[in-house]
Recover the amino acids of this structure.
């Protein structure tokens, strides 16, 4: 019996940019799409960010544009997958809102979680008041009060927090932190033009269009000082200022500086919420916990499990445009898969 | 006072807290390009003094930005002003004129 | 400073510490400079808490200082330590506690190496057999004496006569903790509290009523550096590093420095004397005095009411009297430099810039 | 023809006499000051030149050609040349003829120097002679010539483009007043002479004018005021002269004498330089010539304004201007006066440079490359055979394609050669000289000289024109021939040591500044390139070629500005649609390559590719 | 990959201590030696990482490897789980094995260290012992230290030490049986050979330098000649 596209269900788990984009694409192809989001709103991490690199586009605008028209997509916020069963063909997905869907295909767009910066104990996040994360700073930019920010004269950005670090089990580069740090460094200079801003980096990975310009602008226009050296240790002095130790590796000398604010560029960690699903469906994961696609080059959206697809940062750190492209690619893959059924 | 035969040595660390940025800022006003350096090392690699002296323009810029002025000036004194660095700099920094500007600004005490 | 944040980290670095039955290995440095601390430790655990801590007179140095001065191969230290384990096995103990932090670090490292390279352990079995005709099995638990003080901290506080509280102000004493580098920096997971915010001394100090002072250079090495101190030509290294720590802690005006490492204890004490005698500078609250530097054993014993001179606090160069006064410890000034039975041993010469009583 | 007044005097001559006296005294003092400021050595040269009859002839010829006839401008822009020479030569002839008339008709009045100037006022025509009419004709003729020049000058103010100038100098207030005076002098003179033509006589110009005016001007009251006006204009002009561009009129002759004496710039505002900057006529030829002028914002750096600033001692702006200059030498090449502005700027750089301690102790660690053993043709040279030492220089180190090609050609020619700085070497010193740091360059010159002497070479071969210039001008390498590879390869071809095939490729040759204008090497590279392809010329070439923009001469020119110059220079080179651009300078090659739509090659590369 | 590098890599401390360095500088940032000496642990790891024998030999013959204080602060921070301090120990071991240590001023100090420390271990069973730890060569022992030294037995008796006596307790006399064990352990584990090697090569070096053994000892123990400190000239 031939089924129409509308009679086929696709369940997308994760209502971030990847989930939204894929759901719209699949909806346009005529499938019945169920988009499940754990939080009380769609958008994932994008919803928490103020502005996006490299051009400073407001994240709200981007998100607003994406969610302006969701078509016939059936989307549920504050909803989790409570049970997942593999059927002969497709999957039975039971949601926390009581709904049970027979899914012909599953798309995981579960994204990432921000690295818990307090795990880098030497930086004292959660211990020293003036140490915050990139996400906290975005809150501040969005207008949410972050008392730690105060009126700083000396500000530091630490790149690679929880990335490229075997000690915390994340050997990979989180890809977006360099650009985020430079973006935030410029933004904070806009707020506090007299402040001295340092970026402590290991390698500046300015790979995208416009990123290098942003870096150049940070140097030339904003006078951000780049120190090549990973911060090794942070401590607090009597007045609550932060005493930072690093090596200025380009001169080969130890470097000391006292700061009023230190921003940790927390990287991307794999989303632990996806672990039970991965276990149930016996999906392969990589040693750092991210889901392993069938082939990172030729089948990046496919899993080892029939009818299960991936898009976005659930398979590793991605930028927003990459995530969106993957979402659209996954929609195409799912379409092909369902047409072959 | 007792002579123990050893003593306390000052730290070799760069202490940015003690670095008075006035002169560096003066340099940056005169030569705004100095801020554009991304420490690629092209200048040092192509320098005809490489291997013969410790001149290293990348380090000169860095050291000036870290308050190690004497060290930087010592390096600068080896410069022949040949301009090779100017040709190779990927950021288009006028490295050649940086040298006289550095001496001009840092010589006056 | 957010204490809750530290507690979160401490919760991740818990160490299982058996309550009783230990084979005790002494520290070379402590025996030389603060033997009273080891005696107090054994007295407290054995006589006050009734625990079984055994010392075999046949045990020797582990050779850690010689090893870290790069004069002996690792196998030599491994085999010496294997011999200590053999003595422990012989005495019927399964838990090993060392008095010295260098020893603790070396023991931990060796056990770790054997874990990852069983062939090396096998070789050491062979070598020990060849040398001493001995066999050994590894201990179930390896502890440092400060781990024990931490473990017994509530027992100690129960018997506290002079808690770490300033009797004049009622405020907790400001205590700087200094952890020997080899206690947790190599293997943070083998310590109480990890390498960044070690709990081992902080927990003890808090239990005894004091408050811990965190200063920027807290984590910095005392500067022993083995060959950097032992060879006179290098000693500036050692002095300079201690100096850096004191400069950093100065604004906090600590009343006391507590250490878990015999070497650090000696250096933080003696370098204050050298700094005073070369630059005239003294640290701490009481002008002309320094900051007393005591080991966790000494602090515990003092709190529990041991006589400071029985403890051997007169062997410190920095006078402990200002601390004793703050704690309200009863002591006889005149007995400080007396021998057994009040034997007159004279008194040490008075340095120019730092008072010794 | 005889005196109209017994006294031979009228009050109206006073303005002229005052003005003339002022300017003469001013000039005398100026000349003495300049001579006094010359370094002793140069002063000696100057005085020696005055007793050298050969130099007298040269001086005379130069003064006539440059000061009166403006042949240099003629060659470049005929209309402009006519404008200049008509005024200068016409006026000069009026003065000369006035004197001759005086000498002929009232010889005893020659001693009053105003008399010949106002000749027509003081004399009356007593009889018509052929001689008198001839002089009247000549006077009117030259007055007409001057007037035509003045008319052109007025027109030029409005429409400079017709004269082939895209931009012209903007004038300052004293300049403008003096200019209006100058414009007015000759029409007023015409009027004055016309009004007196009834008494003093006239020719084809003045006499008809007289008839014309006498129709409605019945009395003679207007005669004297006109002469007053004429005299006052002259007087005003002379008094203003030192403060205007027209100072070049008297200074240039003096400059020619100094230049021919072999004097060089040693201080930006003393001695010779004073003569130079006062000789600048502010004609503005250098504005269009300057490669920087592609951008409006750079207009203020034009040499003419630099000279003006220097006259006003505006050091800060002078310095800025001097540091910006590319030192391409084009403004010097086009300057009708030949103001050596590059060297003035160089000396200013040296004067204003912060005293920086130089530590070149490390020079002793450089040695000759071990190429003697690696070069295949480096066997011991036979007696009398030349031994070539090839010095690539810093810039060629960045363009190994050149040194490789040079090696290929030399090997093919079977030349005995050695590579002096294969593993890097000491800079030639030219960049420092360009920066005005001659004293620091001396250390390089000394060390390099030592190395070159050590090698036992008889020929020093250079591929970099920057090095070439300094080796030629500042090194003392007696007994060693210094040669640029363009010249040397040309020689090899002519001697038949290498033979070339013609690929027919359409080539354009870029004259590097230091090689062309700097060392006057133009024909050798063209001869060789003509043999390997079809050589076409750029729109501007030879001494008018446009700097590539990479010049080490400029200290402060930004990367972006340099790029604009490069693009402009490339446009110029691509004028005749060549297939390939050939240059003979590593710096030009490096500068052109990234932006050129056509392949850019080095001369040596092209030669190496087309050897049989 | 060179032979020397291979030999280094056979040392388990190097295998454990050197994965691949990313030059982040966290080690140098906290290194007590880097602020004092002309020393940078990151650079050392980097040189070893080049696998260039020539460079490694230069390192083995230099003062550089002897600047480390083996505090292991670097180990805690390395994001690549390297242990620069362990790399140093391996380098020092090899420098002694290959006899290169006598080439550098700081390396020559091994003579004094081996003599005193191994002497203490084998003669007394302690690394440090009052018989060899003297105020004269340790003036920082202070006035109290001098007093202790002057009343050694009395002071130790007073604080409950068992100095020089049999049975348990601090500074007890280590039984012959134990000392013999230590000697045998030194013999079978290469400890004795190591000490002998250091002494032999040092004696040769002393001869070369025209010094008696005692003079050589005093020289290496007390004197500093080269530029070792990393002070900035300001």
């Amino acid at each position: 019996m031939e089924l129409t596209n509308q009679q086929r269900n696709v369940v997308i788990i994760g209502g971030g940019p990847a989930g939204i984009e894929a759901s719209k694409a699949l909806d346009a192809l005529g499938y019945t799409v169920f988009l499940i989001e754990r939080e009380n709103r769609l958008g994932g991490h994008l919803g928490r960010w103020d502005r996006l690199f490299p051009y400073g586009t407001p994240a709200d605008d981007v998100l607003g544009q994406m969610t302006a028209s969701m078509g016939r997509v059936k989307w549920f916020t504050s909803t989790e997958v409570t049970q997942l069963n593999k059927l002969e063909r497709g999957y039975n997905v039971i949601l926390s809102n009581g709904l049970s869907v027979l899914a012909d295909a599953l798309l995981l767009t579960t994204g990432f979680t921000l690295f818990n910066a307090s795990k880098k104990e030497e930086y004292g996040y959660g211990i020293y008041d003036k140490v915050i994360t990139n996400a906290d700073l975005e809150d501040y930019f969005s207008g949410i009060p972050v008392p730690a920010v105060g009126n700083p004269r000396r500000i530091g950005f630490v790149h690679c927090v929880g990335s490229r670090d075997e000690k915390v089990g994340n050997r990979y580069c989180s890809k977006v932190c360099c650009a985020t740090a430079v973006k935030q460094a410029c933004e904070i200079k806009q707020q506090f033009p007299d402040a001295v801003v340092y970026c402590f980096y290991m390698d500046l990975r300015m790979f995208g269009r416009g990123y290098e310009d942003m870096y150049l602008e940070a140097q030339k226009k904003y006078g951000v000082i780049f120190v090549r050296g990973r911060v090794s240790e942070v401590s607090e002095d009597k007045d609550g200022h932060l005493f930072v130790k690093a090596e200025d590796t380009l001169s080969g000398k130890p470097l000391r500086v006292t700061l009023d604010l230190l921003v940790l560029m927390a990287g991307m960690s794999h989303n632990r919420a996806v672990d039970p699903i991965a276990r149930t469906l016996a999906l392969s994961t990589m040693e750092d916990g991210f889901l392993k696609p069938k082939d990172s080059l030729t089948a990046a959206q496919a899993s080892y499990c029939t009818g299960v697809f991936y898009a976005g940062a659930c398979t590793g750190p991605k930028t927003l445009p990459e995530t969106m492209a993957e979402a659209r690619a996954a929609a195409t893959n799912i379409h092909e898969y369902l047409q072959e059924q | 006072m007792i002579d123990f035969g050893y003593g306390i040595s000052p730290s070799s660390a760069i202490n940015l807290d003690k670095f008075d940025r006035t002169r560096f800022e003066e340099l940056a006003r005169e030569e705004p390009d100095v801020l554009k350096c991304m420490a690629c090392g092209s200048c040092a690699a192509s320098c005809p003094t490489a291997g013969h002296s410790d001149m290293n323009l990348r380090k000169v810029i860095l050291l000036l930005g870290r308050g190690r002025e004497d060290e930087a000036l010592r390096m600068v004194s080896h410069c022949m002003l040949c301009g090779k660095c100017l040709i190779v700099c990927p950021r288009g920094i006028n490295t050649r004129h940086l040298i006289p500007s550095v001496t001009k600004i840092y010589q006056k005490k | 400073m957010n204490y809750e944040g530290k507690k979160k980290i401490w919760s991740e670095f818990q160490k299982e510490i058996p309550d009783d039955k230990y084979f005790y290995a002494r520290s070379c440095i402590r025996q030389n400079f603060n033997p009273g601390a080891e005696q107090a430790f054994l007295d407290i655990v054995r006589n006050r808490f009734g625990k079984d801590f055994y010392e075999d007179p046949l045990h020797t140095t582990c050779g850690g200082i010689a090893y870290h001065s790069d004069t002996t191969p690792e196998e030599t230290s491994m085999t010496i330590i294997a011999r200590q384990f053999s003595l422990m096995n012989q005495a019927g103990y399964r838990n090993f506690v060392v008095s010295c932090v260098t020893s603790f670090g070396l023991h931990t490292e060796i056990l770790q190496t054997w874990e990852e390279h069983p062939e090396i352990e096998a070789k050491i079995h062979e070598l020990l057999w060849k040398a001493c005709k001995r066999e050994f099995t590894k201990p179930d638990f390896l502890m440092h004496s400060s781990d024990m003080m931490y473990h017994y901290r509530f027992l100690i506080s129960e018997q506290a006569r002079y808690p770490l509280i300033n009797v004049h102000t009622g405020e907790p004493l400001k205590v700087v903790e200094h952890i020997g580098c080899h206690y947790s920096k190599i293997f943070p997971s083998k310590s109480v509290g990890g390498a960044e915010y070690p709990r081992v001394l902080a927990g003890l100090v808090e239990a005894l009523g004091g408050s811990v002072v965190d200063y920027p250079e807290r984590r910095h090495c005392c500067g022993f550096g083995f060959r950097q101190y032992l060879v006179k030509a290098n000693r500036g290294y050692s002095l300079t590093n201690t100096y850096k720590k004191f400069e950093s802690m100065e604004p906090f005006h600590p009343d006391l420095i507590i250490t878990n490492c015999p070497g650090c204890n000696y250096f933080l004490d003696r370098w204050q004397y050298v700094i005073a005698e070369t630059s005239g500078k003294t640290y701490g609250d009481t002008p002309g005095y320094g900051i007393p530097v005591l080991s966790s054993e000494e602090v515990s014993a003092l709190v529990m009411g041991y006589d400071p001179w029985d403890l051997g606090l007169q062997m410190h160069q920095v006078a402990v009297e200002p601390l004793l006064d703050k704690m309200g410890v009863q002591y006889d000034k005149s007995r400080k430099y007396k021998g057994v039975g009040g034997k007159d041993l004279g008194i040490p010469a008075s340095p120019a810039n730092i008072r010794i009583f | 023809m005889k005196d109209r007044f017994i006294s031979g005097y009228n009050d109206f001559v006073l303005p002229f006499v005052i003005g003339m006296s002022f300017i003469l005294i001013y000039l005398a003092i100026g000349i003495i000051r300049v001579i006094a400021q010359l370094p002793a050595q140069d002063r000696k040269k100057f005085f020696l030149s005055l007793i050298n009859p050969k130099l007298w002839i040269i001086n005379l010829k130069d003064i006539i050609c440059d000061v009166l006839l403006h042949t240099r401008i003629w060659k470049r822009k005929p209309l402009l040349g006519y404008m200049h020479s008509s005024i200068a030569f016409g006026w000069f002839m009026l003065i000369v003829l006035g004197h001759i008339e005086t000498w002929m008709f009232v010889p005893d009045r020659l001693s009053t120097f105003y008399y010949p100037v106002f000749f027509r006022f003081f004399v009356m025509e007593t009889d018509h002679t052929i001689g008198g009419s001839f002089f009247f004709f000549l006077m009117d003729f030259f007055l007409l010539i001057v007037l035509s020049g003045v008319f052109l000058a007025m027109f030029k103010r409005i429409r400079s483009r017709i004269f082939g100038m895209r931009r012209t100098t903007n004038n300052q207030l004293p300049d403008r007043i003096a200019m209006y005076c100058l414009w007015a002098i000759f029409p007023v003179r015409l009027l004055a002479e016309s009004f007196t033509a009834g008494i003093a006589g006239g020719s084809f110009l003045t006499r008809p004018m007289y008839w014309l005016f006498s129709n409605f001007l019945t009395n003679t009251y207007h005669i004297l005021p006109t002469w007053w006006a004429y005299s006052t204009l002259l007087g005003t002009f002379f008094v203003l002269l030192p403060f205007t561009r027209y100072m070049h009129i008297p200074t240039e002759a003096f400059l020619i004498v100094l230049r021919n004496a072999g004097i060089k710039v040693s201080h930006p505002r003393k001695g010779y330089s004073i003569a130079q900057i006062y000789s600048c006529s502010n004609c503005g030829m250098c504005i269009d010539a300057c490669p920087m002028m592609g951008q409006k914002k750079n207009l203020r750096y034009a040499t003419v304004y630099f000279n003006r600033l220097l006259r006003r001692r505006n050091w800060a702006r002078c310095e800025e201007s001097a540091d910006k200059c590319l030192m391409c030498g084009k403004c010097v090449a086009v300057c009708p006066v030949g103001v050596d502005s590059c060297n003035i700027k160089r000396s200013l750089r040296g004067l204003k440079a912060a005293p920086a301690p130089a530590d070149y102790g490390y020079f002793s660690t450089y040695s000759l490359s071990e190429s003697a053993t690696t070069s295949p043709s480096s066997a011991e040279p036979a007696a009398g055979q030349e031994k070539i030492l090839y010095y690539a220089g810093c810039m060629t180190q960045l363009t190994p394609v050149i040194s490789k090609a040079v090696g290929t050609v030399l090997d093919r020619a079977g030349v005995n050669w050695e590579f002096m700085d294969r593993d890097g070497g000491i800079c030639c010193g030219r960049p420092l000289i360009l920066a005005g740091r001659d004293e620091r360059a001396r250390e390089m010159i000394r060390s390099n000289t030592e190395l070159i002497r050590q090698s036992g070479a008889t020929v020093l071969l250079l591929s970099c024109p920057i090095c070439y210039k300094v080796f030629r001008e500042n090194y003392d390498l007696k007994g060693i021939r210094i040669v640029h590879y363009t010249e040397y390869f040309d020689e090899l071809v002519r001697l038949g040591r290498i033979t070339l095939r013609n690929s027919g490729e359409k080539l354009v040759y870029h004259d590097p500044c230091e090689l062309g204008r700097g060392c006057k090497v133009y024909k050798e590279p063209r001869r060789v390139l003509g043999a390997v392809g079809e050589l076409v010329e750029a729109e501007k070439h030879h001494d008018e070629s446009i700097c590539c923009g990479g010049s080490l001469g400029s200290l402060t020119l930004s990367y972006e500005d340099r790029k604009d110059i490069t693009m402009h220079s490339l446009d110029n080179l691509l004028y005749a649609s060549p297939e390939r651009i050939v240059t003979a300078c590593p710096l030009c090659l490096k500068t052109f390559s990234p932006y050129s739509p056509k392949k850019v090659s080095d001369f040596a590369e092209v030669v190496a590719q087309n050897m049989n | 990959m060179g032979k020397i590098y291979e030999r280094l890599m056979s040392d388990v401390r190097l295998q454990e201590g050197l994965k691949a360095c990313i030059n982040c500088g966290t080690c140098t940032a906290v290194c007590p030696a880097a602020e004092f000496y002309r020393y940078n642990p990151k650079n050392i790891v980097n040189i070893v990482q080049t696998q260039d024998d020539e460079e490694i030999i230069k390192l083995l013959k230099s003062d550089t490897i002897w600047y480390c204080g083996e505090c292991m602060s670097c180990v805690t921070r390395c994001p690549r789980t390297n242990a620069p301090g362990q790399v140093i120990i391996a380098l020092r071991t090899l420098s002694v094995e290959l006899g290169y240590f006598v080439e550098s001023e700081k390396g020559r100090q091994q003579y004094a260290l081996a003599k005193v420390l191994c002497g203490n271990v084998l003669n007394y069973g302690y690394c440090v012992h009052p018989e060899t730890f003297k105020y004269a060569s340790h003036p920082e022992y202070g006035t109290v230290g001098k007093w202790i030294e002057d009343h050694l037995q009395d002071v130790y008796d007073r604080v409950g030490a068992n100095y020089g006596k049999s049975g348990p307790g601090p500074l007890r006399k280590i039984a012959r049986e134990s000392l013999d064990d230590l000697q045998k352990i030194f013999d079978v584990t290469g400890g004795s050979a190591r000490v002998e090697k250091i002494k032999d090569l040092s004696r040769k070096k002393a001869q070369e330098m025209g010094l008696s053994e005692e003079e050589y000892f005093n020289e290496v123990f007390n004197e500093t000649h080269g530029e070792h400190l990393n002070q900035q000239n300001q």
Chain E touches chain A through 22 residues (CB under 8 Å).
